[in-house]
Design brief:
alpha+beta, Single alpha-helices involved in coiled-coils or other helix-helix interfaces, 2 domains, 3-stranded antiparallel sheet, 3 strands, globular, binds zinc ion
């Protein structure tokens, strides 16, 4: 054992191509979102997710925050997403499907920031 069989090698190559495709789709999505074509951006995100699932490839960390977990919409704060910071959490409210997503606000390893820092005092 130790040596990878033909099948395993092929799988590695497929995974590499899949992750390349995902990053291309992500770039395209960003471009479309900037030019205001949100449905296209969402569609690219959907395709990237589909490729990730099919080839068992992890999506980049930034992907998670760019798309709504529930409806898959490309998130643009102020346009289709409301973002608020409260009690050390970033709350993202999707205006398309109403889904609320919270994640901790981490600054330089500190798990939460004080409210006085938020107010600039
Ligand atoms: Zn949503």
């Amino acid at each position: 054992m130790g040596k990878k069989g033909r099948y395993a090698k092929q799988k590695d190559r497929r995974k590499k191509i899949a992750s390349e495709r995902i990053s291309i789709l992500m770039e395209l999505a960003d471009k479309e979102a900037i030019s205001g074509k949100l449905d296209r951006a969402s569609r690219y995100g959907y395709l990237a997710r589909k490729i990730g699932k099919k080839y068992n490839v992890r999506l980049p960390g930034t992907f998670k925050h760019k798309y709504c977990k529930h409806c898959g919409t490309y998130r643009v704060p102020s346009r289709n997403t409301r973002v608020r910071i409260s009690r050390g959490h970033i709350t993202t409210h999707c205006l398309e499907c109403g889904d609320i997503y919270r994640r901790p606000y981490i600054v330089n390893g500190n798990r939460s920031i004080k409210e006085s820092e938020l107010n600039g005092q």
